[in-house]
Specification:
The structure is a homodimer of 338-residue chains. Chain A has 338 residues and is α/β, with parallel strands linked by helices. Chain A folds into 2 domains: 1-120 and 288-338, Isopropylmalate Dehydrogenase, CATH 3.40.718.10; 122-282, 3-Layer(aba) Sandwich (Isopropylmalate Dehydrogenase), CATH 3.40.718.10. The first copy, chain A, contains 12 helices and 11 strands. Chain A is globular, with a radius of gyration of 21 Å. The mean pLDDT of chain A is 93. Chains A and B meet through helix 8, helix 9 and helix 10 of A and helix 8, helix 9 and helix 10 of B.
């Protein structure tokens, strides 16, 4: 496997990206290709010891920044690390592309360069969500790519998410839940109700509507929603966890008795914090394009980069794109039968 | 002021309802009317000491349960505590109605019996949200009454929420934020974009789009969204807080050193928990109907009932319904000018 990592994407590029790539190289035999400004990347690489044959650098003279308008950036910055990296996946020079850069541009580049899998109307971003206290994960699809969705899009998200969980995360016959404002079949918008119908007819292990309160408890393996709702779920979880930890810290550092107590609990507090730490869980696969793309959090540190590379390998290796392609026929039958 | 409390609504009726009413009566001079099965309510009342002239009981022979289909229940159970209680608000025998019962039935009864405020297309449920660590609150409108909304509905929610925060919660010139997937004006669905336009033209203190991650941080006083999104925000917050506390408890009760640490922190942990405790913040006003209705959480305990009664008084007293009525003209001008 050849893994191309965007050396210029995200808030901490290139230093944390390069550092994470070096760390990943110590745990895998696959080839890691860092793409971006060669002098800058080489300067970072010089800081570390690693097997030279395992990390290579490909030069790209341009960078798509987080402020660039996605479509325009992809069209005009042809020699950017992102466009060039994805072109390597298209040409078969690489099997997986990973970036912490501009999400919209990554989606657009995936669509323009690789194209959609035939029969998939809308590719989606799938985000890994920790199930707190249980060690498992849930996959949230769509986590933000498509604000407005049709019922068949939600069916596609469920299908692609199920395949990803089975082939990449080793969860056999994963359960699928549809985010709604109540568990009853009659709840929700007209689009959600129609999606419920479609999902009921599929061969997926559909458990019905789920309420938002049950998502953190791990009520199902694949959580399906439109990208607007997915974005709300992702960001609210992030904001609430951040607020609670800040509050814990405030409370636990006032007064001497409290400080002693907090000291005795420090290892437990660290455990708790690591359960929330997105950098442990790897990146967010973009599902539905003809190639393996993974988006990392914009503020990814070396640990997040390392984990995204290592956890991304089975996405390319197990040929998820082909699996999705093969499954499309069943979806079309369901949609047409409506 | 006369406050009618549904003695039969919610999981803990009538005992916690009656207990909470007795507690509230100790802190206010207003008259509290408990409506429901008279023998049951009197039996509960006998347990307590209170000024007899301050609590009265009105008999209602029927109960709308949480499983009842809302519209049918309101149409057929004319002698239910809910229908009868709201009729008392309509006739002027009471100024405020509070219930922990079936939310859908409460909305339906509000619409059928009291009717909408003229010029308000869609009444909404407004939910009080704590700003953790800061002591303040945010009002979330709509928290679940309207899954699908038009742009003018979102404008109405913002307006009604602003009036409520100013007149009831004493927040002068409250800020209004529109829930979206990014802060840029160009983000979101066509409905959200159109609502952004309308809000920009209003005299409200509109701060623009807000992201879900900033809601718990108290980014604005009134958080505006459709009822689908509001339900997701409310229930995800509830579920995530519950999961984190469960995890804290698990972590802090394993091993002797940990237990000692947790003991030293116990007062701080209690403080933290009380910040999340919905029972401290009062109920959720239903805005847009011609009368003051407040919904309590279905599992409300006596403390929640007490706080909902006490915090509900200014809703009736400050004539919020009339204020909303007076403000409708400005909204109509904005909508027509589009």
């Amino acid at each position: 496997m050849k893994i191309v990592v965007d050396g210029m994407g995200g808030d901490n590029a290139p230093h944390e990206i390069v550092k994470g790539a070096v760390q990943a190289a110590a745990s895998t035999n696959h080839l890691i290709i860092l793409i971006g400004d060669e002098p800058q990347i080489n300067k970072e690489l010089e800081k570390y010891q690693y097997k030279k044959e395992q990390i290579s650098v490909v030069h790209a003279s341009e960078v798509i920044s987080s402020d660039d308008p996605p479509v325009k950036a992809v069209r005009t910055k042809q020699d950017s690390s992102m466009v060039k990296g994805i072109n390597m996946v298209k040409s078969g020079e690489a099997d997986l592309f990973i970036s912490a850069g501009n999400t919209g541009a990554l989606m657009a580049a995936g669509l323009f360069i690789l194209g959609r899998i035939q029969g998939i109307d809308r590719p989606a971003i799938a985000s890994i969500f920790p199930i707190l206290g249980k060690g498992g994960v849930t996959l949230l699809v769509d986590a933000g790519a498509n604000s407005e969705c049709k019922p068949n899009n939600l069916l596609e998200f469920a299908n692609m998410g199920s395949i990803y969980m089975e082939k990449v995360m080793d969860i056999m016959n994963p359960t699928v839940g549809l985010v709604n404002i109540g568990t009853e079949e009659t709840k929700g918008t007209t689009i959600i109700k129609a999606a419920y119908e479609l999902l009921s007819k599929s061969s997926m292990r559909f458990v019905g509507n789920i309420e938002a309160r049950d998502i953190p408890k791990g009520v199902c393996d694949v959580v399906v929603c439109d990208g607007f709702t997915g974005n709300i779920i992702l960001k609210l979880s992030e904001g609430l966890a951040w607020t609670i930890f800040k509050l814990l810290k405030q409370k636990f550092t006032s007064g001497i008795v409290t400080k002693v107590g907090a000291l005795l609990l420090s290892s437990k507090l660290k455990e708790l914090k690591s359960e929330f730490d997105y950098s442990e869980y790897g990146g967010a696969p973009i599902l539905g394009v003809k190639g393996a793309l993974v988006k990392m959090h914009g503020s990814s540190n070396a640990n997040a980069v390392k984990n995204t590379i290592l956890k991304g390998i089975p996405y390319a290796e197990n040929n998820v794109v082909q699996m999705i392609q093969n499954s499309v026929l069943e979806l079309e039958e369901i949609i047409i039968s409506e």
